[in-house]
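pasting Aldehyde dehydrogenase for the record, 519 residues
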Amino acid sequence: MAPTLTAPATLTLKPGTAWADAWQRCLAVAPESFRDDRVLNLWAAGWQADGRALPATSPVDGSPIAGPPRLDADTAQQAVRASLDQHRAWRHIPLAERRARVAAALDALTEHRELLALLLVWEIGKPWRLAQADVDRAIDGVRWYVDGAQPMLEGRTPLPGPVSNIASWNYPMSVLVHAMLVQALAGNAVIAKAPTDGGVSCLTLASALAAREGIPITLVSGSGGQLSEALVRSPEIGCVSFVGGRDTGARIATAVADLGKRHILEQEGLNTWGIWNYSDWDSLTAVIPKLFDYGKQRCTAYPRFVVQRSSFDAFLAAYLPAVRSIRTGHPLAVENPADPLPALDFGPVINAAKAKELGDQVAEAIDRGAVPLHRGTLEEGRFLPGQDTSAYLPPVTLLGPPPSSPLHHAEPFGPVDTIVLVDTEAELLAAMNASNGALVATLSTDDPATYERLAPQIRAFKVGHGKPRSRGDRDELFGGFGASWRGAFVGGELLVRAVTDGPAGERLPGNFPDYQLNA
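structre below
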C-alpha cells in the first residue's frame, strides 16, 4: 500500500489541469500521434501503432498516465534504415528552407506551450514554473540558432547519417527537443529514443508539431537492451548523442569507439561547492533554495558541499534556515480554483522507486556514521487530501557520508545534500574532485587570488566564483572533464560543429581518448 498523507481540505486540483484534461487536448491538437489511451511511435515519416504500450503512473500522485510503446529490436532497425532515407533527402534541402521549417515548428511549440508544460508536470513531476521554463528554453534556444545558422554552417556539411539521441527524462524539451531541432537545422535527420521513466507524451506532441513542418524526426520507445544495437551500433547512424549515467554512457562509449563513430556523451558527475576563507554568508543563504530546483534532479545540481572546518558553524547558520524554507508538494494543488499554481521548489522525484532508493541510502549512511543535520517532513508540504505521496522525498542533509555509501562518491539525483569537512587546501581539492570529473563546480572564497589559484585545479568544465554554474544557453559552451563527458563538446557554435563535417583533418573540441580540446 502506497503511503498517503492527509492534507488540508482547502487544497484541490486546479480546474483544467487534470491528466484527463491534458490528454483530451493532445487528442485534439495532434490526433495523428495520440490514439485512445496510448501514444504512437514516429518512423518512416508516419505514426505507427506498433510496440507494446507499458503501463505508467504519474509521480505526482501515482495515477495512471500513458506509457511508452516499446518496439522490438527488428522494428527499431527498420526505423533507423527509414531515417537514413529521410536523411539523404533532407541534407540537400537548402538552408533557407530548413530555417523556415524549423521556425514554423517553433511557432507551433509556442502556440501549445502551456499544454507541453502541463504534460511535463504530470509525466516527470516538474513544478509549473520549471515546466514552463523547460519549454521556453527549448524554443528560445533554437530560435537563436535559426537566426545565426548561416555563419555557423559556412563550409560545413551534414553528417553521412542521422543523429541518434538517447537522453534522460529530466529535460525533454530544453535538452532533447532543443538538440533535435538544431541537428535538423544543420541538415541531419534525427532519431530520438523516448526516455523510459517519463516524458513520452510531451515528446510525442513536440515531435508531431515538428513533423507537420516536414522535419525528418523519428521518435521511438523501447528498452536500452532492445534498441541499443540499432540506435548506437547501426552503420546508418552518423552520430550518437547521449545524456545519462556513467554506466550506460561507458557502454555506449565503448561501442562508438570501436566503430569510430561521432559521439556526444554527457554523463553524470558529483558537482561540488567549496567553502574556503569565506564570509559572505547572506549570499549563500539566498542561493541555497535555488539549488534545490526540481529536487536536484539536474545534471548541474550541487549535492556536495566541501566546507572548511573552521567555518562550519557559520556555514550551518547560513545553510539551515535556507534549507528549512524549501517548498514542496503537489504541483497543481491550489486553495481556490482561481488561484495561480503554487510556486514550489520541487514536487516529487521521478518515481516511488527512486524515492525509496534515496531514503534507503540515507538510512544506510546514517547507520554507518553520517550525521543527519536536516531532515524535512512531508507534513510541511502541500498535498491533496488522501493523495499518494510515495514519490515525494523532503530535503535531507548529511554530514560526513561514509566512503562505503553511494552518497559519498556518486550523484544522488534527488534532494539529498552531503557535507564534507576539510582542513587544508589539498583536502579541499581532493574532496571537490571525488568523482573523477564533473560538469560544474563552485568555489566560495573572499580572496580573488585564492580563487584564481585553486579553480584551475578543480576538475569541472565550468567553475563559478561564489555563484552556481549552469548548462548555459545559446552561445555558452558546455562539456565535462574526466568521466563526466566523452566526445564532442556542445553549446553555441560547437553544437553545430559536433553534428556536421568540416575541413579535412578537423579536430573537434571535446574530450576524446587521444586528446582533449576546449575550444
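The longest strand covers residues 416-422.
The chain has two domains: 32-267, 272-465.
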